[in-house]
């Protein structure tokens, strides 16, 4: 499938780059529909690779790249289930999203996340699966999961550890604070900063340069530089599921979802 | 180091300019969510602009429960 127009995302090939646009209101929350369409995308990757050298993932939503997992859907779906059923559903979702992230991580294309605005939780994890993160000056990153009694569940900790020193990872995770693009570049997450609204332009220029090189060389280099931490990723799912079954998580999610104040519920 | 009043004045000017509100309509004790008509995502946008402007890092947890410009200025002042 060379191009696709879905409810939450679309893709097409532009000048040798697969451009995957996220366009799900309000800020590309990753729920079951997005997961299905991401799976459609990863299934289409083998067809796309012969005619493309790069993949650019970006968002058309004004608020940002992605606010992460769809916590409202998670809360609404699991609150009506008994604990075993809820946990089974969460585990299945995690296994599927991990398969998607691993496929993007290992894709035989040079992958670029062009991010702006809110790049939180699962959205941040999607960006971390890419080879290069190009960020708009107004991008903001966060792993807020610990503030809700969880850990990141879409591969965040193993991929952060792959890219950053453990001390920085602990600060980001254990405080759950958000941070701007200057900090993200300083700690080594973001390699290129674009002017406000220009992340896609900079990503396209990067893709154009990357596309000049021999693909086999680029694929070999990527495999060498960016091993996928499969064992830690599996462990992440187990820890997430252990934590998810605690009452504190349901309470945290409930407060977050039911909060109607101007600021989100986050302790 | 600038005074807190000076910091407050710069915050009000930046907020007025970015959210297109007349500067004279903003006062230090205003609830900026209401006065600027912004939601939590736009508040994060404001936080990022303020961090760039003052060249500081201001963790968002320091702003939990803060909704007036004066307290915001005090939090920023503590990071200058």
Could you characterize the architecture of this molecule?
- The complex is a heterodimer of chains A (267) and B (80).
- With 267 residues, chain A is an alpha/beta fold.
- Chain A has one domain: Alpha-Beta Complex (2-enoyl-CoA Hydratase, Chain A, domain 1).
- Helices cover 49% and strands 17% of the residues of chain A.
- Chain A has 11 helices and 11 strands.
- A 7-stranded mixed β-sheet of chain A has the order 1-2-3-4-6-8-11, with helices on both faces. In chain A, strands 5-7-9-10 form a 4-stranded mixed β-sheet.
- In chain A, a hairpin with a 3-residue loop joins strand 1 and strand 2.
- In chain A, helix 3 runs antiparallel to helix 10.
- Chain A is globular and about 55 Å long.
- The N and C termini of chain A lie far apart (44 Å).
- The model of chain A has no long low-confidence stretch (mean pLDDT 93).
- Chain B has 80 residues and is mainly α.
- Chain B has one domain: Orthogonal Bundle (Non-ribosomal Peptide Synthetase Peptidyl Carrier Protein, Chain A), CATH 1.10.1200.
- Chain B is 55% helix and 0% strand.
- Chain B contains 4 helices and no strands.
- In chain B, helix 1 crosses helix 4.
- The radius of gyration of chain B is 11 Å and the shape is globular.
- At the A-B interface, strand 10 of A face helix 3 of B.
What are its keywords?
heterodimer; A: 267 residues; alpha/beta; 2-enoyl-CoA Hydratase, Chain A, domain 1; 7-stranded mixed sheet; 4-stranded mixed sheet; 11 helices; B: 80 residues; mainly alpha; Non-ribosomal Peptide Synthetase Peptidyl Carrier Protein, Chain A
Reconstruct the topology from this structure:
The complex is a heterodimer of chains A (about 270) and B (about 80).
Chain A: E1 4-5, E2 9-14, E3 17-22, H1 32-48, E4 54-59, E5 64-66, H2 71-79, H3 83-105, E6 110-115, E7 118-120, H4 121-129, E8 132-136, E9 140-142, H5 156-163, H6 166-175, E10 178-180, H7 181-186, E11 192-194, H8 199-210, H9 215-225, H10 230-244, H11 247-258
Parallel strand pairs in A: 3-4, 4-6, 5-7, 6-8, 7-9, 8-11
Antiparallel strand pairs in A: 1-2, 2-3, 9-10
Helix pairs in contact in A: 1-3, 2-3, 2-11, 3-4, 3-10
Chain B: H1 4-18, H2 32-36, H3 40-54, H4 69-77
């Amino acid at each position: 499938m060379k191009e696709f127009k879905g409810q939450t995302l679309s893709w097409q090939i532009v000048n040798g780059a697969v451009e995957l646009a996220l366009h799900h209101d309000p800020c590309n929350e990753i729920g079951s529909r997005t997961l299905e369409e991401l799976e459609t995308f990863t299934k289409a990757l083998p067809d796309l690779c012969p005619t493309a050298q790069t993949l650019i993932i970006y968002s058309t939503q004004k608020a940002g790249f992605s606010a992460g997992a769809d916590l409202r859907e998670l809360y609404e779906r699991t609150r009506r289930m008994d604990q075993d059923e809820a946990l089974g559903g969460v585990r299945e979702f995690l296994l599927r999203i991990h398969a998607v992230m691993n496929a993007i991580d290992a894709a035989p294309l040079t992958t670029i996340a062009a991010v702006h605005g809110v790049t939180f939780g699962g959205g941040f994890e999607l960006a971390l699966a890419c080879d290069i993160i190009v960020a708009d000056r107004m991008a903001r990153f966060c792993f807020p999961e610990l503030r809700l009694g969880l850990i990141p569940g879409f591969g965040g900790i193993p991929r952060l550890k792959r890219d950053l020193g453990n001390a920085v990872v602990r600060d980001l995770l254990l405080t759950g604070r958000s941070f701007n693009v200057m900090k993200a570049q300083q700690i080594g997450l973001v390699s290129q900063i674009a002017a406000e609204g220009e992340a896609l332009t900079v990503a396209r220029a990067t893709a154009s340069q990357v596309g000049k090189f021999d693909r086999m060389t680029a694929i070999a280099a990527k495999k060498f530089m960016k091993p996928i931490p499969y064992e830690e990723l599996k462990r992440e799912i187990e820890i997430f599921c252990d934590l998810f079954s605690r009452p504190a998580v349901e309470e945290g999610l409930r407060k977050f979802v039911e909060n109607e104040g101007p600021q989100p519920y986050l302790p | 180091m600038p005074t807190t009043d000076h910091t407050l004045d710069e915050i009000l000017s930046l907020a007025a300019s970015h959210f297109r509100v007349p500067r004279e309509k903003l006062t230090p004790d205003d609830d900026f969510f209401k006065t600027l008509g912004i939601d939590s995502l736009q508040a994060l946008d404001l936080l990022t602009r303020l961090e760039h402007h003052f060249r500081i890092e201001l963790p968002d947890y320091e702003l939990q429960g803060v909704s007036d410009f004066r307290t915001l200025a005090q939090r920023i002042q503590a990071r200058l």
